[in-house]
Specification:
The complex is a heterotrimer of chains A (about 230), B (about 290) and C (about 300). The model of chain A has no long low-confidence stretch (mean pLDDT about 90). With about 230 residues, chain A is an alpha/beta fold. In chain A, about 35% of the residues lie in helices and about 25% in strands. Chain B has about 290 residues and is an all-alpha fold. Chain B has a single domain, classed as ABC transporter involved in vitamin B12 uptake, BtuC. Chain B has eleven helices and two strands, in the order ααααββααααααα. A two-stranded antiparallel sheet of chain B has the order 1-2. In chain B, a hairpin with a 2-residue loop joins β1 and β2. In chain B, α3 packs antiparallel against α8. With about 300 residues, chain C is mainly α. Chain C has a domain of about 210 residues: ABC transporter involved in vitamin B12 uptake, BtuC. Chain C contains 15 helices and two strands. Chain C is globular and about 50 Å long. The chains are: A alpha/beta (about 230), B mainly alpha (about 290), C mainly alpha (about 300). The interface between B and C is large, with 44 and 40 residues.
Chain lengths: ~230, ~290, ~300
């Protein structure tokens, strides 16, 4: 049984169908990529999975449980974590607080884990700094480890490489790889093809809300429909 | 329920509701304009109406002007005041979190109400111009309500024509849809904001002028209009201009209907519960509208 | 660290001074201080919901009035002693907050604010309608018996409790979670925070203080009627005090209450519209020029901790 099963999901806004009859399945312990031209519905699909949007049709099953229609906080508590296309740290909270606010349980434990995660991305000396004062790259890292605080089994990353310099990107990708090695499942939306090709084992391609291809990166690159979607005929 | 509903009563209610509704629609259109173009919730909208009413009163009381002839004057004056407010204060919070614009317009509304208190005192004023009613069969219609409705309908129609047919109107609608796209199309968004705010205040002022003939004028009179305008927008769909029309008529009808069964005090409570229900059921309004 | 200790020391001294003040203060002085405590409690309470979560409650005086009427009815109708009745007023405030909060807090921030705007008028209408119970437009009169000094202490105690509660909330993760709602509600939800429930708790907490002081104030005045206990002016004053002092902090609302109360008493109490006008202007000025309030400026200037 797949860890995440999306079946026939549809979501429209007004007259525009953002996601149309999309189905995909994710197995545990792999890294997946979700690509497609702008406006193809990738973020909307993410939103449907995480509960920010409610699909009009279709089902989403996570670890054997239907989660479509659940409120976002419930989905998150169930074990699905995500980052956003536009960074959404809490600016008036410190980096440490940004992480600690996400978990329950004893404060000391939360603080210890938060510091550990900040150390993981080499930001521990900025723990007491307001997140709003951090640089773009630093905020990106904080958002990334914030997702890891609750130890989710499925991690959705929305354009993790956007606006990030080479060194940082390598660190991030390395971290993602390590997550996979520990048995986590990652689905990432990306425009940077090098990242996708280098990291993802399976890639899904969306165009105008529909899934037009699915397969290994090499096969996708050569797929006519994909080329057409990006470059036209 | 110990009220017996005759067709005449129903007719009376429907007609009264539509008459009042036209006025609500016009005033609410102004609020919808500000929200649609700038995403600002203008709590000072009611006080604008109040100032329009006072403008009419001054002109009537000091110069004996026909109150209905003061419409262009009060509209022009409030247009300018609105533009001034937008240019000095409101424009600074257009891109800020919604909380800021809420608090700002709240502060402005307090200031306006109290300026009115200082200048006019809280003595009730009235414009005794048109009294009495006309009978249309079994239905009695107060003359001032009838004329108010006529003017409101005409002004609203003009506003819609402006929005649909003129270049400026189309620019306003484009900016409501998407500010970024409007800018790319070469629309001077700052100017659009200024003009929209001015028009919205002018519409409120017209409401004030028309209402001045019907009710007592006092500085706090605008508050309930702010609230009802919000109710209209929610009923009709936020950011949806034709929705303001329907929402206004709907509110007028509902109010008149509920006044049959409840005292006027409770019918205000009805409006309130209605607002909360409407917001819960469809945050973007009952008639659809833009997704926020 | 010594800064913290000096601060606590100063607070302790202040507490002692306030405790013994009624022994040698004038009647007018005691009543003024009593009012100040009331405003401190009101402002700090408003801060709990609006300052922390960013959900602006424009109708907060509703809880004040509900407390006043509950106390009034219990004292005059059922012969309760006023301290117990005032506590019941606090409960009434919380119950009202529950009734309003459950539907309204599901709305997004701005819509919640709009819903709260109309609350005032509705409650006033309801109070007038249920005349039999509330005395309607004629109001309720308390049995006259001077209780100024006990009420002084009751108000002071309530204010202290509210401040203490605020401190506990702001320094806890619950408080942090409330703040995430203000910072980015969507992200907060996505991170697993049940924003509705948090907002509701904050709202309930914020209604208890006004409920209690509403009851105490009613007892102090000796007479309540719809206009006197649901005035928009009270909400406006609460809001200005918190915004001016510094929303989202522990001492900001207290600072704002003290500063503006003194201002109000000394300068403008005779010119009610003028000072209301200035309140409106202050709100505008604060929003545009110093959104963090006076305390916020001090925090930046003297590098004070966020949890102050």
């Amino acid at each position: 049984m797949a860890m995440l099963e999306v079946r026939g999901v549809r979501k429209s806004f007004g007259g525009v169908t953002a996601v149309s009859d999309v189905s995909l399945a994710l197995e545990t312990g792999h890294i997946y990529g979700l690509i497609g031209p702008n406006g193809s519905g990738k973020t909307t699909l993410f939103n449907c999975i995480t509960g920010l949007e409610r699909p009009e049709a279709g089902t989403i099953v996570f670890e054997g449980q239907r989660i479509d229609g659940w409120k976002p906080h419930r989905v998150a508590q169930r074990g699905v974590g995500r980052t956003f296309q536009v960074i959404r740290v809490f600016p008036e909270l410190t980096a440490l607080e940004n992480l600690m606010v996400v978990t329950r349980g004893p404060r000391a434990e939360a603080e210890a884990r938060a510091l550990e995660l900040l150390r993981f991305v080499k930001l521990e000396r900025l723990a007491g700094e307001y997140a709003g004062n951090l640089s773009y790259g630093q905020q990106k890292l904080v958002e990334f480890v914030r997702v890891l605080m609750t130890d989710p089994s499925l991690i959705l990353l929305d354009e993790p490489a956007a606006g990030v310099n080479r060194t940082l990107l390598n660190d991030l990708l390395e971290a993602v790889g390590r997550l996979r090695d520990r048995g986590k499942t990652v689905l990432l939306v990306e425009h940077d093809m090098k990242v996708v090709m280098g990291l993802c084992e399976t890639v899904f391609v969306l165009d105008h809300g529909e899934k037009i291809a699915e397969g290994a990166p090499g096969a996708i690159q050569a797929d006519e429909r994909v080329i057409e979607a990006y470059f036209g005929r | 329920m110990n009220v017996v509903l005759t067709p005449a009563m129903l007719g009376q209610v429907v007609v009264s509701g539509l008459l009042a509704g036209a006025l609500y629609s016009m005033v609410a259109l102004g609020l919808a304009l500000i929200f649609g173009v700038m995403r600002v919730i203008n709590i000072a909208h009611g006080p604008m109406l109040m100032l329009g009413a006072y403008t009419t009163w001054i002109l009537f009381d000091r110069f004996g002007m026909n109150p209905y002839l003061t419409l262009p004057v009060s509209a022009a004056v409030m247009f300018l005041l609105g533009a001034l407010l937008q240019r000095t204060l409101v424009f600074r919070v257009v891109d800020a979190p919604e909380l800021s614009s809420l608090l700002l317009t709240f502060g402005v509304s307090i200031a306006l109400v109290n300026i009115a208190q200082l200048v006019f005192t809280s003595d009730l004023r009235s414009v005794e111009f048109l009294t009495g009613s006309i009978a249309l069969g079994p239905i009695a219609l107060s003359k001032s309500r009838l004329i108010a409705c006529a003017f409101a309908a005409a002004i609203t129609a003009l506003a819609f024509l402006f929005l649909q047919k003129t270049r400026l109107g189309k620019a306003i609608r484009a900016t409501s849809q998407s500010r970024e796209v409007a800018m790319v199309c070469g629309i001077d968004v700052q100017r659009i904001h200024l003009i929209s705010f001015g028009i919205a205040c002018a519409l409120a002022a017209c409401g004030g002028t028309l209402v001045a003939v019907m009710v007592a004028i006092q500085p706090e009179m605008g508050q309930i209009w702010t609230f009802k305008s919000f109710l209209v927008i929610v009923l009709g769909g936020a950011g949806n201009y034709p929705g303001a029309l329907l929402g206004g008529l709907l509110l007028g009808l509902i109010e008149q209907l509920s006044s049959l069964f409840l005292t006027t005090q409770l019918s205000e409570a009805v409006a309130y519960v209605l607002l909360v229900l409407a917001l819960l059921v469809r945050p973007s309004g009952l008639l659809g509208g833009r997704q926020t | 660290m010594t800064r913290g200790r000096t601060f606590v020391g100063a607070l302790a001294l202040l507490a002692v001074a306030l405790a013994v003040y009624p022994l040698f203060g004038t009647g007018y002085g005691v009543r003024s201080m009593l009012q100040l405590f009331m405003w401190v409690a009101l402002a700090s309470s408003w801060n709990l919901i609006s300052g922390l979560t960013g959900y602006v409650s424009f109708g907060h005086v509703a809880f004040f009035g509900a407390g006043a009427y509950t106390t009034g009815i219990l004292v005059t109708g059922a012969g309760w002693p006023w301290p117990a009745a005032a506590l019941a007023g606090g409960v009434a405030g919380a119950v009202l907050a529950l009734l309003i909060g459950v539907p309204c807090l599901r709305l997004k921030g701005p819509y919640f604010a709009i819903a709260m705007l109309g609350l005032n008028e509705v409650l006033r209408a309801l109070v007038s309608y249920f005349e039999g119970l509330t005395g309607g437009g004629n109001g309720l009169s308390f049995p006259t018996r001077h209780a100024t000094v006990p009420i002084y202490y009751a108000m002071a105690f309530t204010a202290a409790v509210v401040i203490g509660m605020t401190y506990l909330v702001i320094t806890s993760r619950f408080g942090l979670r409330l703040m995430t709602i203000r910072e980015d509600e969507v992200a907060a939800e996505a991170m697993g925070i049940d924003t509705f429930r948090h907002k509701l708790y904050a709202f309930l907490l914020s209604a208890v203080g006004p409920g209690i002081v509403g009851g105490l104030a009613a007892r102090d005045q000796g007479y309540i009627e719809p206009m006197s206990v649901f005035p928009l002016a009270t909400t406006i004053t609460m809001i200005v005090m918190v915004l001016f002092g510094g929303k989202g902090t522990v001492w900001g609302p207290v600072l704002g209450a003290v500063l503006l109360f003194v201002f109000q008493e000394v300068v403008w109490s005779h010119f009610i519209y003028l000072h209301q006008l200035l309140f409106g202007a202050i709100i505008v000025a604060v929003v545009l020029l110093m959104p963090r309030g006076v305390l916020g400026l001090l925090q930046i200037r003297y590098r004070l901790p966020r949890t102050i």
